[in-house]
User: Which sequence fits this backbone?
């Protein structure tokens, strides 16, 4: 999956790649899935191709406020990222392992 | 939720903000949900009471490798934690906002 994203990105001009990188770096905080996709320089159509779905499915997913972790993981990986599930406590943070091996 | 957190954070001193960031970076142990519960000193029975379910539901959930984000969130919150969904990219990490307001 990540491989396909790399292929898409390699087709972008160096300027466009630099622009995407700068934009992603700027991002520290919180983004909705649609914002994140745009920050990655991807269209809903491009992401749909990577995920073997139709563009409206991407549009719909980006509006959802709940979904299976596996669905979110595929979506993030299609954008070239890695999903991390963290439980934060006053004493520290723990990565939840249940879902890592999927 | 995100807004409220941002407001809280903005009220923190730069030193406190840096401390929080360092702690988030310093992350993390990886644990399965059952290990995490035990590390929190909780029994399945205790967690079941908090979540208004029966103990076997907790046992079952701890074995799952996929679930709805809202289910995981309730489970983490019942242990006194906060769920954070992060997308990691080579250029940086982004907190996914879609699920924050549930």
Assistant:
């Amino acid at each position: 999956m990540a491989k396909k994203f790399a292929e898409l990105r390699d087709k972008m001009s160096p300027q466009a790649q630099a622009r995407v990188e700068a934009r992603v770096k700027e991002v520290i905080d919180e983004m909705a899935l649609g914002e994140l996709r745009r920050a990655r320089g991807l269209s809903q159509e491009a992401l749909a191709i990577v995920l073997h779905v139709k563009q409206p499915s991407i549009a719909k997913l980006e509006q959802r406020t709940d979904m299976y972790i596996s669905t979110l993981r595929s979506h993030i990986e299609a954008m070239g990222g890695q999903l991390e599930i963290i439980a934060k406590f006053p004493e520290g943070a723990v990565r939840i392992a249940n879902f890592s091996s999927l």
